[in-house]
From TrEMBL:
Lineage of the organism: Bacteria, Bacillati, Actinomycetota, Actinomycetes, Kitasatosporales
Family label: Belongs to the glutamate--cysteine ligase type 2 family. YbdK subfamily.
Catalyzed chemical reaction(s): L-cysteine + L-glutamate + ATP = gamma-L-glutamyl-L-cysteine + ADP + phosphate + H(+)
Top-level lineage group: Bacteria
Role played: ATP-dependent carboxylate-amine ligase which exhibits weak glutamate--cysteine ligase activity.
Protein name: Putative glutamate--cysteine ligase 2
UniProt cross-references to InterPro entries, sorted A to Z: GCL_type2/YbdK_subfam (IPR050141), GCS2 (IPR006336), Gln_synth/guanido_kin_cat_dom (IPR014746), YbdK (IPR011793)
Keywords: ATP-binding, Ligase, Nucleotide-binding
Gene Ontology MF annotations: ligase activity
EC number: 6.3.2.2
SUPFAM superfamilies assigned: Glutamine synthetase/guanido kinase
Length: 362
């Protein structure tokens, strides 16, 4: 059974006003004083963000429970200094991001200018174990067209600087400002993958291999494929669903590779269009079907995803739970839908944030 680990970025906010607060250093100091949380929470690029990482898990229910626990611990540490955490992929309220003091972060600010200064977005990364770089690259080549579906499921960033962006996942559009972000061509071998990353670093446009911000990549720290397309999800159970689907996609791709089935040869241009459509439409309208790259209702594309990974989900014991979670998500809507409904009900972006603080902790 492949192990799965999750990294989530949370927004630090004022519990009364909903405005982002640059207090990550103080929250981290609280966490570091707690023996149980010393290795869980990490500094991020902006002072208004807090990141945590789960342990690798094979049981998806246990992973979901750990995500919920980490969120509650983050809320506890933040509450001790008078702020709160919200699983929001962008701030609904206007914000001027504060860049953390760090030589690497200063390099990013100098190199990319306004793109760095405006890049306050919170994502979710899923690490799925692979046996080797050869298997990992084979997986990367085969999961490419399915990743936009994860964008639509996780979409949780409709607002930007106090206005409705008209996108369900505006975070993904902001993230694509990085020059190394987005979908990739077929690699075919670990040698071609590593040569491309090395060539990117040699251009001087990016600082190092950590800045290969592909939609999915080989982790430079762990023996994993890292799926990086998702917004941080408003609800922990949606984060668990994304992790479950990511593992099933990796397992299905590895099986296809071992069986000699070739990956779909979609161009990067079409993959970018699929990602844009998923970010714009979410689950409420049409997505591009990963096989045909033609529009179909989102519900049909989700059913195609479940069919595609059905054997892997069955073998891991996750099929029934995943189908139930997808059905519930289609009824309720993704995080972007929930945020817009909150705004319609309350008439206040401040209330949207404070309600989302409660949603974050379940």
């Amino acid at each position: 059974m492949r192990t799965v680990g999750v990294e989530e970025e949370l927004l630090l906010v004022d519990p009364e006003t909903g405005e982002p607060k640059a207090l990550s250093a103080a929250v981290l100091a609280r966490a570091e004083a707690d023996d149980a949380d010393q290795d869980v929470f990490e500094k991020e690029l902006y002072g208004q963000m807090l990141e945590f990482a789960t342990h690798p898990q094979t049981d998806m229910a246990e992973l979901g429970a750990e995500i919920a626990r980490c969120r509650k611990e983050a809320a506890r540490h933040a509450g001790e200094i008078g702020c709160a955490v919200a699983a929001l992929a962008t701030s609904p309220l206007p914000v001027s991001p504060t860049i953390s003091i760090n030589p690497r972060y200063q390099w990013l600010a100098d190199q990319y200018g306004i793109a760095t200064r405006e890049q306050l977005v919170c994502g979710m990364h899923v690490h799925v174990s692979v046996e080797s770089d050869e298997e990992g690259v084979a997986v990367l080549d085969r999961i490419r067209p399915w990743l936009p579906v994860l964008v639509a499921i996780s979409a949780n960033s409709p607002f930007w600087q106090g206005r409705d962006s008209s996108y369900d996942s505006y975070r993904s559009r902001v993230w694509d400002r990085w020059p190394s972000a987005g979908p990739t061509e077929l690699f075919g071998s670990p040698e071609r993958y590593h040569r491309l990353v090395a060539d990117m670093v040699c251009t001087g446009v990016i600082l190092d291999e950590k800045m290969a911000y592909f939609d999915a990549r080989l982790s430079e720290r762990y023996p994993t494929v890292e799926v990086r397309v998702s917004d941080v999800c408003l609800h922990a159970e949606t984060a668990q669903l994304i992790a479950t689907l990511a593992r099933a996609l990796v397992e299905t791709a590895a099986r296809d590779w071992r069986a000699g089935r070739e990956p779909a040869d979609h161009s990067v241009t079409l993959l970018r269009l699929a990602g844009w459509q998923a970010a714009r439409a979410g689950l409420a309208r049409e997505l591009l079907h990963p096989d045909t790259m033609r529009r179909l209702p989102a519900e049909s594309v989700l059913e195609a995803l479940l069919d595609h990974v059905g054997d892997a989900l069955t073998d891991s014991g996750d099929l029934a739970g995943t189908r139930e979670a997808v059905a519930g998500l289609l009824r309720r809507g993704n995080g972007a839908t929930v945020q817009r409904e909150l705004l319609e009900r309350t008439g206040s972006l401040r209330e949207v944030v404070t309600e989302c603080v409660r949603h974050t902790q379940g």
